[in-house]
């Protein structure tokens, strides 16, 4: 049995009919055409599908769409400005060369953003701990941590 839910994705309102077993990742990728969130493990472990739901980093592969009814969702597509200017965290990943194959990058950037939204100036240890929630199969962790540190440093005016 399907039901209609309301989602605010990247500040746009959508009314979508979903089945009980539909996951948020299915809605984003297959219904809304937002392919930035990736599917890796498909079981809530790797973080490739990380999005922000009401500000919290969330595994879209493991969240039922009906549970997100009324939620505000941010995906990687929603970060750049309308003029194409990169979000500061995206810019820092670019500047640090913090991607190899790029598969984990959307999830890493949103995970980093959720940290900086909570604490704009975390230290390296806190960054490392927070970013440990997601897996980079290319193991480019040092550059990823560097990128978040750069973003935090710019936030602090360093
Ligand atoms: S694909 Fe969702 S956590 Fe791995
Ligand atoms: S850059 Fe390839 S998985 Fe992280």
Assess the beta-strand content as a share of residues.
15-25%
| Helix percentage | 25-40%
What structural class results from the helix and strand content?
alpha+beta
What would you call the shape? Answer: globular
Q: Termini, distance in Å?
A: 54 Å
Number of helices: 5
Ions, cofactors and other bound molecules: FE2/S2 (inorganic) cluster
Mean pLDDT: 96
Main sheet: strand order: 2-1-5-3-4
Q: Largest sheet, if any? A: 5 strands, mixed
Number of strands: 5
How do the helices and strands follow one another from N- to C-terminus?
EEHEEEHHHH
Q: For the CA atoms, what is the radius of gyration? A: 16 Å
Catalogue the unreliable spans: none
What does this structure look like?
With 158 residues, the chain is of the alpha+beta class. 34% of the residues lie in helices and 17% in strands. The protein has a five-stranded mixed β-sheet with strand order 2-1-5-3-4, sandwiched between helices. A hairpin with a 2-residue loop joins strand 1 and strand 2 (12-19). Helix 2 (88-96) crosses helix 5 and helix 4 packs across helix 5 (141-155). Residues 99-104, 136-138, 140 line the site of one FE2/S2 (inorganic) cluster.
Write the layout of secondary structure elements.
Blueprint: E1 2-9, E2 12-19, H1 24-31, E3 50-53, E4 56-59, E5 72-74, H2 88-96, H3 105-118, H4 124-131, H5 141-155
Parallel strand pairs: 1-5
Antiparallel strand pairs: 1-2, 3-4, 3-5
Helix pairs in contact: 2-5, 4-5
One FE2/S2 (inorganic) cluster is lined by residues 39-42, 44-49, 59, 61-62.
């Amino acid at each position: 049995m399907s039901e209609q839910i309301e989602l605010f994705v990247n500040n746009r309102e959508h009314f979508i009919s979903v089945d009980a077993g539909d996951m948020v990742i299915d809605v984003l990728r297959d219904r809304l055409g937002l392919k930035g969130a990736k599917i890796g493990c498909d079981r809530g472990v790797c973080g490739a599908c990380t999005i922000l739901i009401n500000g919290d980093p969330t595994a879209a592969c493991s969240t039922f769409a009906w549970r997100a009814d009324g939620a505000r969702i941010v995906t990687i597509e929603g970060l750049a400005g309308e003029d194409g200017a990169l979000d500061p965290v995206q810019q820092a990943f670019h500047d640090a060369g913090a991607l190899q194959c790029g598969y984990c990058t959307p999830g890493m950037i949103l995970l980093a953003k959720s940290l900086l939204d909570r604490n704009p100036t975390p230290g390296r240890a806190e960054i490392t701990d927070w970013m440990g929630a997601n897996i980079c199969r290319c193991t480019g962790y040092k550059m990823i941590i560097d990128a978040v540190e750069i973003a935090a440093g710019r936030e602090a005016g360093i």
